[in-house]
TrEMBL record:
This is Methionine synthase. Gene3D superfamilies: 3.20.20.210. Keywords: Metal-binding, Methyltransferase, Transferase, Zinc. It is an enzyme of class 2 (transferase). One of its GO terms (biological process) is methylation. The lineage of its organism: Bacteria, Bacillati, Actinomycetota, Actinomycetes, Mycobacteriales. One of its GO terms (molecular function) is 5-methyltetrahydropteroyltriglutamate-homocysteine S-methyltransferase activity. Residues 5-328 form the Cobalamin-independent methionine synthase MetE C-terminal/archaeal domain.
Amino acid sequence: MSPILPTTTVGSLPKPSWLAQPETLWSPWRLEGPELIEGKQDALRIAVKEQSDRGIDIVSDGEQTRQHFVTTFIEHLDGVDFEQRETVRIRNRYDASVPTVVGAVSREKPVFVDDATFLRQQTDKPIKWALPGPMTMIDTLYDRHYSSREALAWEFAAILNQEARDLEAAGVDIIQFDEPAFNVYFAELKDWGVAALERAVEGLRAETAVHICYGYGIKANTDWKASLGSEWRHYEESFPLLQQSGIDIISLESHNSRVPIDLVGLLRGKKVMLGAIDVASEKVETPEEVADTLRSALEFVDADKLLPSTNCGMAPLSRDVALAKLSALSAGTRLVREELVTSHA
Ligand SMILES: [Zn+2]
């Protein structure tokens, strides 16, 4: 059984430099063929060991087998042409060259199930697997076939549900959907965004999570954050809808952000995966800083529903810093656990 305040991460960790160029998004692999397969598995083993050794209770694959949290999933689907690339503006923030939807999208076979099975074999701890959410997927594509963001999102939701059921069968305990787009497209969020996400989790027995954030610590995101003013109230749009939804866990960014912590109160009854580690800074948090963030959240969420986590994925950080941040997360959580035990004694 997990301890109170089980620690976890949003998902990605830096890859070893022998596998892919460090501190780079969409970093090209440095191995190929059978060596690449072996290298990805070795990196995944290391990611699991580092998380376990550093006191992370709910373990992820560190996304060691994927180049990118959205595109690697899409690459395995039919109906998307990776040779036909178009430049689009991602979440209204930065331009990226993305593949084109040229026909009906479908999943011929499971995408991550072999990797998840391998992760399951590496640890007895609960495991969490991240998939992109439907709205974030359509925002990372150029669509020439459906001509409707909503229609394409429903197709992806059905595909994600197939994948999630297969991950559940492979022994994944928590299936997480990454929806940073929920902090940007509020009209769509209300029209069909949360509904599409609920379609993706339909019929699952595994716990489900949605991660909504202000993005990786890359320049386009930090520039955007600098323009958002003194209070970031974006979660006010999604949280009331998610509180009414069938999603079990809501993951948000907190430490070093300008998100008013009382917004956590909008999620009453849900589990809250709280970002107590800043992924946009190389500065490693002290245990006391982590503990302060958790304490402030505990005014708005019950202790048995709080999961200390990172603000977002740590893929773009240097490896040493990311690993030190895992240790800080555990150490800060331990401080608060001790206080909770003392106060209930
Ligand atoms: Zn994120």
